[in-house]
């Protein structure tokens, strides 16, 4: 094919301005015109091979002019903005655009992988099942053959490659409400929008392309005496000026969900050369509409014949649009192959734009005189009752061989005639684009007259209009648009005067009157590779093979052949594939049925779905002392949504050196740590004690006022859920603390029991995590530190014994002080109102100056508790019980509580369960978290007997240690094993220890 | 899907947390039958049609409600508050 730029004039290149633009494709620089798509610009530059096909690496060119494109997929941009598998037909050209072809090695014009074509039979339907199913390799999930082939297949498969560099763009999510959503702004959508807008209701119109107007943009017809394009532009301008109407262009409605919720993606800056980085790249819209008019048009479908995938073969209406809208001739000599009247319209418009149309080949013999006239107008030779037998040319089209065709038997005659051409414009009829309503579960109905599936009955509040509803042609589009508008208005409950509820005669249309129903011909079977699904390389023979092998249902056909499963989701191939299956099984298409479409309509960037949950817009929670940590030079660390200080590095210190220093300082003197992130729940009411007693494993009924208690919570299935201390402030008031990560789910858990299980208990719950600031003061000198600054209370061992709780004042700040220890040292937790947090921190730091107090971070906090053998998140992993973690003593046998019954299941008392131990490195190597505990050498490690959970360097033991869960671990102290981590190439000799590594008797924290 | 919170009105389902099958009642506190607890925790009927579910308006007022929903069509038939304050919300 040699496409080229036509002489631009009135009616040729209606989408183009006069501004020249430079862009690059595969590293080479080209010029296009503002208004071009990447596809039209590549065609205008004479490029025919744009990509390589998925399986056989056959050369492929531009096939369509819209979002249904199966072939012309490219990779756009570079670095973090690299975006693979983008349809060149949808990319608006801008200055400096960088695009690359894909799935080719080394280049799109010479692809070594094209040898796959020679192995055609091997890659037929069910290739993977047939080739790789069989007895699996011992210890593996696959056959040996798969084992050998996998790496080659993985390298060869797939289309474009994504990037691992983070996406620098940002995205937004939008919520919108309207009375009526109009999807599509072609003739039908426009008619509906005008009608509903006039009634004053809130209207949103979504249009997939850059300009509203749909097919009117390239229609040769005149409306009210004006060219359709200009008429539609005026209408849109009028609509845009109305306060109750929003028109979203470059917005694809991707999904239709329950409660009339639509999901749409708006491409905000993708088409701009100079992108305003202050606005999001794309917006993801959730649009809730009381009712909707769906006017998404129809997609032209191809004919299937031998060699129908050659570059230079494209859909007839797309060829027409390239000439009219983009001033680009799809070839020097175009042959049209059709089974319906619209192919003739395309031929006429191509010729009018200055393209040579050499022949029109129509499978039908009975063609209206008014249609034959169109062919004569473009001086093409007309071959009715004929079809394409084969295509000449390997990397493009040199000509076609046609033969007489019997429409009734589907047989080709023995004759043959060669027609020289370099482009074939194909039309196999039109398939209404009812993807959105099909997503909702509406069952499509086959219309034999139109040879198309129609959307079927609505399950929600929507009304189809135009070609989407099988109403082809301008006059029908306008009428059905108005009808749908009135039905949608009725849904919204807007009362309408009688006069307004009438359908007018619509605008005056001067244009072609044609029959849109095609002849029921989908495939010309002449042997040779005939492609049904161009993107996944599924041939007509693959479909028949599936039928022969028993995969007759459409859902099986889809999965066995991968028909319609590529990024285009079979927009141009589904109906043809079904028709071929129907013919093979000798059933009507209506009985074969169709698969249900799934959202999204076109591929969606992950960033648009993540929206502000990703990148710098993601929510962060900061403690009241956050700024102090940052000023102190702490490296801040994301712990769930919370930002927490990792370590307070001194100049030149590594993180490891810093946490070792901080840990030693706490064990030898005193340190303070911000514990404000702990979940805090205020529990009040006359039944609060009883409530706590039911949700904790240990007794809470008798906790005295002014005392704190450590508690364990289980799920109903007996597994550990969360832990923390609960403080009794007075008779009916408690403050429960939870783990940082567990705060939300503990609150939900408690609310469930309060509201649903025991609503009779008089207890109120409030999340107060953000209301309190907390600082833990730990180390043998912690009491000394508090004595310097605390007023109005006694912090001596007598005044504040272990697990005691007092009210006091520090630097005029009212505080609550509990004597708790996570580190195993003498320690206190000091809580105050959140807004006093930073003042409290400063007060404690200055009180401790003479004692050389250190602030310590999450790493030291963790090291201290690992050494002490206290459990946290990695041990409370949802698969451990109190018995597994050495906490059986915390489980009361005197009461029933959440989880008490199922905790008694036999399996939980088995002695070979994973049990909590500690391990220490014997060879000086660091132990990685998640390492498996094995008995064997690095080469023959043997099976896993457990794994490490929380690891650190222990200054106390002078080596790397870890908490671990080991099969029957309680009885294995002293055993020597290995902690192996093949992913990180680590194999560390370890010894199993009791998890109580520091002060097992607890003398320090009680002292 | 949207749910009508008895306190806040119709809201997007993303604001709610599904808390499970509302027909599964926890055995009484003094019931120590493993079978009864096992049924409460694990046995679910997965009905085709109307189903009673417990939802919590976690990103809103945190009211628990029983939602009667058709599992085939996703039609929500009713949203009734539960808990100690249910009467005040009706």
Proportion of residues in extended strands of chain A: 25-35%
How does the major sheet of chain B shape up?
4 strands, antiparallel
Please tell me what the overall shape of chain B is: globular
Helix content of chain A: 10-25%
Counted beta strands of chain A = 54
Q: Write down the Rg of chain A.
A: 36 Å
Report the top-level CATH class of chain B.
Alpha Beta
Count of alpha and pi helical runs of chain A: 23
- Point out poorly predicted stretches of chain A: none
What is the overall number of helices of chain B? 2
Low-pLDDT runs of chain B = none
List the helices and strands and how they pair.
The complex is a heterodimer of chains A (1007) and B (90).
Chain A: E1 4-5, E2 20-25, E3 28-33, H1 38-44, E4 51-52, E5 59-60, E6 73-76, E7 83-87, E8 98-100, H2 127-132, H3 144-156, E9 171-183, H4 187-198, E10 203-206, E11 222-223, E12 226-227, H5 228-240, E13 245-248, E14 251-257, E15 261-267, E16 282-294, E17 298-300, E18 313-315, H6 316-324, E19 328-329, E20 334-338, H7 341-352, E21 357-362, H8 369-377, E22 381-384, E23 386-392, E24 399-406, E25 411-412, E26 417-420, E27 423-427, E28 430-432, H9 435-439, E29 445-447, E30 452-454, E31 462-464, H10 474-492, E32 509-510, E33 531-533, E34 538-539, H11 540-548, H12 554-561, H13 574-584, H14 589-592, H15 606-610, H16 626-631, E35 634-639, E36 642-648, H17 655-668, E37 671-674, E38 679-684, H18 688-695, E39 708-714, E40 720-730, E41 733-738, H19 743-757, E42 764-767, E43 772-778, H20 782-789, E44 790-791, E45 805-810, E46 813-818, E47 827-833, H21 837-847, E48 854-855, H22 858-868, E49 914-921, E50 932-934, E51 946-954, E52 959-967, E53 976-981, E54 986-993, H23 1003-1006
Parallel strand pairs in A: 2-8, 9-10, 9-16, 10-13, 16-31, 18-27, 20-21, 20-27, 21-22, 37-48
Antiparallel strand pairs in A: 1-19, 2-3, 4-5, 6-7, 6-8, 11-12, 11-32, 14-15, 15-16, 17-28, 23-24, 24-25, 24-26, 29-30, 33-34, 35-36, 37-43, 38-41, 38-42, 39-40, 40-41, 43-47, 44-45, 45-46, 46-47, 49-52, 49-54, 50-53, 51-52, 53-54
Chain B: E1 2-5, E2 9-12, E3 17-21, H1 34-42, E4 50-56, E5 64-70, E6 76-82, H2 86-89
Antiparallel strand pairs in B: 1-2, 3-4, 4-5, 5-6
């Amino acid at each position: 094919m040699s496409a080229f730029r036509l002489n631009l004039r009135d009616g040729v290149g209606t989408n183009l301005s006069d501004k020249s633009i430079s862009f690059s494709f595969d590293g080479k620089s080209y010029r296009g015109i503002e208004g071009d798509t990447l596809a039209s610009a590549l065609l205008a530059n004479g490029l025919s091979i744009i990509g390589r096909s998925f399986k056989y690496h056959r050369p492929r060119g531009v096939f369509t002019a819209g979002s249904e494109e199966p072939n012309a997929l490219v990779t756009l941009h570079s670095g973090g903005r690299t975006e693979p598998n983008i349809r060149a037909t949808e990319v608006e050209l801008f200055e400096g655009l960088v695009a690359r072809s894909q799935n080719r090695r080394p280049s799109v014009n010479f692809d070594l992988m094209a040898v796959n074509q020679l192995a055609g039979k091997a890659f037929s339907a069910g290739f993977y099942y047939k080739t790789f199913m069989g007895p699996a390799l011992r210890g593996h999930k696959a056959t040996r053959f798969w084992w050998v082939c996998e790496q080659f297949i993985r390298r060869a498969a797939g289309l474009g490659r994504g990037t691992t560099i983070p996406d620098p763009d940002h995205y937004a999510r939008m919520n919108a409400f309207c009375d009526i959503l109009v999807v599509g702004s072609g003739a039908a959508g426009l008619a509906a929008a005008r009608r509903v807008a006039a009634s004053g209701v809130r209207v949103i119109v979504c249009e997939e392309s850059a300009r509203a107007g749909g097919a009117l943009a390239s229609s040769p017809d005149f409306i009210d005496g004006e060219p359709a394009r200009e008429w539609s532009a005026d209408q849109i301008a009028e609509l845009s000026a109305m306060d109750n109407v929003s028109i979203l262009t470059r917005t694809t409605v991707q999904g239709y969900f329950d409660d009339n919720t639509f999901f749409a993606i708006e491409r905000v800056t993708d088409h701009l050369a100079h992108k305003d980085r202050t606005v999001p790249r794309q917006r993801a819209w959730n649009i809730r509409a009381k009712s909707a008019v769906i006017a998404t048009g129809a997609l032209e479908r191809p004919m299937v014949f031998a060699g129908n995938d050659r570059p230079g073969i494209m859909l007839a209406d797309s060829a027409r649009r390239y000439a009219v809208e983009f001033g680009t001739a799809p070839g020097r000599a175009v042959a049209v192959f059709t089974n319906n009247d619209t192919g003739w319209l395309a031929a006429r418009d191509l010729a009018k734009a200055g393209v040579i149309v050499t022949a029109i080949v129509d499978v039908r013999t009975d063609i209206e005189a008014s249609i034959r006239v169109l062919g004569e107008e473009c001086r093409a030779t007309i071959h009715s009752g004929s079809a394409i037998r084969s295509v000449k040319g390997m990397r493009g089209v040199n000509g076609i061989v046609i033969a007489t065709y019997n429409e009734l038997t589907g047989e080709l005659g023995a004759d043959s005639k060669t027609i020289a051409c370099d482009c074939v414009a194909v039309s196999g009829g039109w398939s209404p684009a009812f993807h959105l309503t099909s997503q909702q579960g509406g069952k499509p109905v086959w219309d034999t007259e139109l040879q198309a599936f129609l959307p079927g009955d609505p399950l929600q509040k929507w009304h189809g209009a135009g070609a989407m509803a099988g109403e082809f042609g301008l006059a029908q589009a306008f009428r059905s648009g108005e009808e749908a508008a009135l039905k949608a208005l009725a849904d919204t409950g807007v009362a309408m005067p009688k006069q307004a509820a009438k359908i007018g005669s619509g605008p005056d249309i001067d244009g072609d009157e044609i029959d849109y129903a095609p002849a029921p011909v989908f495939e010309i079977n002449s042997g040779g590779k005939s492609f049904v699904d161009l993107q996944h390389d599924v041939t007509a023979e693959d479909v028949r093979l599936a039928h022969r092998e028993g995969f007759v249902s459409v859902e099986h056909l889809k999965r066995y052949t991968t028909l319609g499963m590529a990024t285009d989701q079979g927009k141009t191939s589904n109906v043809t594939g079904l028709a071929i299956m129907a013919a093979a099984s000798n059933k009507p298409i209506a009985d074969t049925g169709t698969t249900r479409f799934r959202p999204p309509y076109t591929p969606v960037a992950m960033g648009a779905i993540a929206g502000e949950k990703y990148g710098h817009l993601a929510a962060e929670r900061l403690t009241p002392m956050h700024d102090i940590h940052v000023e102190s030079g702490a490296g801040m660390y994301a712990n769930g949504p919370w930002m927490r200080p990792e370590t307070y590095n001194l100049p030149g210190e590594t993180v490891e050196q810093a946490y070792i220093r901080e840990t030693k300082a706490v064990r030898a003197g005193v340190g303070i740590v911000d514990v404000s992130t702990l979940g805090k729940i205020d529990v009040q009411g006359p039944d609060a004690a009883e409530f706590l007693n039911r949700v904790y494993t240990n007794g809470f009924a008798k906790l005295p006022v002014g005392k704190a208690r450590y508690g364990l919570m289980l799920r109903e299935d007996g597994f550990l859920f969360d832990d923390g201390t609960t403080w009794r402030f007075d008779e009916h008031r408690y403050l429960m603390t939870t783990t940082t990560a567990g705060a939300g789910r503990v609150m939900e858990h408690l609310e469930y029991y309060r509201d649903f299980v025991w609503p009779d208990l008089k207890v109120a719950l409030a999340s107060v995590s953000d209301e309190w600031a907390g600082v833990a003061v730990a180390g043998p000198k912690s009491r000394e530190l508090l004595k310097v600054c605390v007023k109005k209370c006694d912090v001596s061992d007598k005044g504040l014994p272990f697990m005691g709780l007092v009210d006091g004042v520090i630097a005029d700040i009212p505080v609550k002080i509990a004597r708790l220890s996570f580190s195993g040292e003498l320690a206190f937790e000091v809580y105050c109102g959140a807004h006093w947090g930073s003042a409290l921190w400063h007060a404690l730091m200055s009180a401790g100056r003479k004692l050389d107090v250190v602030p310590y971070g999450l790493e030291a906090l963790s090291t201290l508790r690992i050494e002490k053998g206290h459990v946290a998140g990695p041990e409370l992993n949802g698969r451990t019980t109190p018995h597994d973690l050495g906490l059986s003593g915390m489980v009361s046998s005197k009461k029933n509580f959440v989880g008490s019954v199922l905790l008694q299941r036999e399996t939980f008392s088995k002695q070979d369960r994973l049990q909590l131990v500690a391990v220490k490195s014997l060879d000086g190597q660091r132990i990685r978290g998640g390492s498996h505990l094995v008995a064997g050498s690095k080469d023959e490690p043997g099976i896993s007997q457990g794994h490490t959970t929380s690891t650190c360097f222990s200054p106390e033991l002078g080596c790397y240690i870890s908490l671990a869960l080991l099969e029957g671990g309680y009885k294995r102290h002293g055993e020597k094993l290995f902690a192996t981590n093949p992913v990180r190439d680590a194999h560390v000799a370890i010894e199993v220890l009791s998890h109580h590594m520091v002060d097992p008797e607890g003398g320090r924290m009680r002292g | 899907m949207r749910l009508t919170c008895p306190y806040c009105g119709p809201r997007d389902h993303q604001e709610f947390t599904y808390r499970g099958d509302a027909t599964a009642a926890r055995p009484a506190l003094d019931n120590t039958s493993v079978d009864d607890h096992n049924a409460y925790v694990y046995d679910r009927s997965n009905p085709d049609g109307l189903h009673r579910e417990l939802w919590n308006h976690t990103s809103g007022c945190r009211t628990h409600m029983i939602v009667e929903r058709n599992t085939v069509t996703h039609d929500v038939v009713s949203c009734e508050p539960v808990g100690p304050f249910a009467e005040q919300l009706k």
